Amino acid sequence: MEWDWAFVQEIMPTLLEGLKITILATVLGAIVAAVVGLLLAIARRSPNPVISRPVGFFADFIRGTPLLVQLYFIFYVLPDIGIRLSPLVAGVIGLGIHYGTYAAEVYRAGIDNVPRGQWEAARATNLTIRQAWIHVVLPQAIPPMIPALANYFIAMFKETPLLSAITVLELMNQAKSVANSSYRYIEPMTLVGVFFLVISLISVVALRFLEERYAKVDER
Amino acid sequence: MIDWSGYIGLILQGALVTIELTLMGSALALVMAFVAGLGRLSRFAAVRALATVYIEFFRGTSIFVQLFWVYFVLPFAGITLTPLQAGVLALGLNVGAYGAEVVRGAVQAIGREQHEACVALNLGRFQRMRHVILPQALPLMLPTFGNNAIELLKGTAVVSLISLTDMTFQAQVVRAQTGSTLIPFATILVLYFVMALAISTGVRWLERRARRGLDGVRA
């Protein structure tokens, strides 16, 4: 079977439509993951084991099981208990929680990497705990986290085709429906691959830039 | 009341497929990781370029797209694979690309003085890798390899979408037949988690073994 450029042109608008949903899901998922991750990281640091233990187990459990099954769980099980979500919302929640558990580890490492001396100095200069967090700890903890977080968000972008399994009309699903109706698989599937490759190569370059910009803070 | 025993059997059959796929995929990934990882450190620019293209390509696109490409596009090129072969191939090549970077990083983490000592002892390139560099690099690779193996296990769920009857596929079958959603999905989530725990326990054991005899070599 030959590569057909006319067919490529014909299916391009449909694929771009799908790409929009893919990017939308990635951005929304990243926002949910950033928030969920922070909450998990804080809960896991709690001195009260009744909070920190179950939260830790939950995070390990989510990290140890496939995103696809979690998406099915959200999409098929929750309606049985009366929570009906649109496919996209279910997908964003799934992506957000799954990658939130990864983001939580990044937050934890970032906060742990602030030297003890900084806490003690904040204390010695009579800052309140709140002031110490806002003015001393977080400004030092956040910049080194940015490249690692961005890395996970790129990984999340690459996982978005899974949303097609719960009927979200993103890039992969559009390509599949085009392929199934025209019986041509080469162009749509290859184009999906090319789209993902191009976007992730661009984001890798952006990541390098972020690393140079932020990751070397501790060398000052 | 639904008779669950038959359905549990179905899911356990799927679990066997998942385990089989994980083992075969990991074996392929391990081979690819060493081939491509050492290829990136080759003396020859062509080998380095080839390894880099492989790694960037497979890390740049998702496992899902690769699997569909292998399963739906390769037949047009005359290569028809069974779902199991396609799954092992896609998972192995994908995770192998991540593993290759781990191999490269670990080999590069071994200090210059080790290489110089090998030159001073008149060891050949192969001997140097085999007897000096890799035995020290292996313990550095193992923890990340463990994580990669868990990623591969999680990746196997995706093959259910190319009609391979793994655990996720069977759970969907059970859902379709019984209309119950919570029990099949909760069961397989727990089973996946148990498998992931087994992998991390196994890797920790391997790490202890690989470290044996290296005490005091490096801090």
TrEMBL record, chain A:
The protein here is known as Polar amino acid transport system permease protein
Q: Which UniProt keywords apply?
A: Amino-acid transport, Cell membrane, Membrane, Transmembrane, Transmembrane helix, Transport
Q: Where is the ABC transmembrane type-1 domain?
A: 19-207
List the Gene3D superfamilies.
MetI-like
This protein's record includes keyword Transport = yes
The record's section on Pfam families has:
BPD_transp_1
User: Lineage of the native species?
Assistant: Bacteria, Pseudomonadati, Pseudomonadota, Alphaproteobacteria, Hyphomicrobiales
Record membrane topology: Multi-pass membrane protein
Any Gene Ontology biological process: amino acid transport
Q: What molecular function does GO assign, one term?
A: transmembrane transporter activity
GO CC terms:
ATP-binding cassette (ABC) transporter complex
Q: Which domain of life is it from?
A: Bacteria
Homology family: Belongs to the binding-protein-dependent transport system permease family. HisMQ subfamily.
Enumerate the subcellular locations listed in this protein's record, separating them with semicolons: Cell inner membrane; Cell membrane
The UniProt entry lists the main location of this chain as: membrane
Entry's transmembrane regions: 21-43, 55-78, 189-210
From TrEMBL, chain B:
Annotated Gene Ontology cellular components are:
ATP-binding cassette (ABC) transporter complex
Keyword check for Transmembrane helix, yes or no. yes
| CDD domains in the cross-refs | TM_PBP2
For this protein's source organism, the top of the classification is:
Bacteria, Pseudomonadati, Pseudomonadota, Alphaproteobacteria, Hyphomicrobiales
Q: Which GO terms describe its molecular function?
A: transmembrane transporter activity
Q: What is its main location?
A: membrane
Gene Ontology biological process: amino acid transport
Give TM segment ranges. Answer: 6-39, 182-203
Protein name per UniProt: Ectoine ABC transporter membrane protein /hydroxyectoine ABC transporter membrane protein
Q: Which organism is it from?
A: Mycoplana dimorpha
Q: Which family does it belong to?
A: Belongs to the binding-protein-dependent transport system permease family. HisMQ subfamily.
Query: Which compartments does it reside in?
Result: Cell inner membrane; Cell membrane
Give membrane topology per the record. Answer: Multi-pass membrane protein
Keyword annotations of the record? Amino-acid transport, Cell membrane, Membrane, Transmembrane, Transmembrane helix, Transport
Q: Which residues form the ABC transmembrane type-1 domain?
A: 15-200
